[in-house]
Amino acid sequence: MKNTRKKILLTGGTQGIGEATLNLLAEKGYEVHFTYRSSSEKAKKLEAKFEGQVYSYKLDQGDPDAIKNADFLLEHDWDGIIFNAALGSGTVKEYAKSSDDLAFERDSAMFSVNALGPLWIYKKVQKKLLEKDTKSKLIFISSVGGGLAAFPYFTLSDGMSKSAVAFLGKQLAAENTHTLIDVFTVCPGATETPMFTSSTLSKMSEEERTAFDLAQPKKRLIQPEEISYWIEQLLKDESTVLHGAILDATMGLASRPGIQTEAGLSH
After folding, report:
1. Domains parsed from the chain with CATH numbers
2. Rounded CA separation 194/199 (Å)
């Protein structure tokens, strides 16, 4: 039976894993409230596709004042929050301009959006979550780089910020062992998303891309829908036994990160 009662907050719902998750949850009967930063036209299309079931909100989660003023965060009793919105080493260049080769501005943006944004949102909704008499599921989306493994010559602040996300998930799991809040962290591997395309795939020739795909675990990239499937599973009541888990969703890349680094990849 489709669940038409659960309300889910999804940050970053207009592309990649976020969009795949939004579509899946809407099809399953969830009411989905999602954020976006700049893709207003895409947000409108998603609302129209699932009219009366999906709602969008413009939010730059790297801006603390924007989160303080985001009243919608407190207007609902969230049954689940999926902390998905993030910057990658390619998309950060659109978000923050750099004054020189040191690119301190982009490092700061990585942490503000990827690590502090989820923290700030949690702090804003924490009291309301604790007042609920039913379970809430918090799902943090980290990454294989930073969350599970280290990749030489990849953007340092990217991996550092994703490591911070994984730590936040672990810390909040420790603090909520005796509450109705369940916390999980998902670390996807090389996933075919606009973010990964911007940082890595777009730099490759057709031949290089073919060789890259074949070198990945299982000889292919992960698809966003594969990650969204497991995110939806974590929203179920039965997922409580996984409270505190940092889930390896990499098809083995975290176990053998050299698949990428030995090929001379960097970003």
Report:
1. 7-263 (3.40.50.720)
2. 9
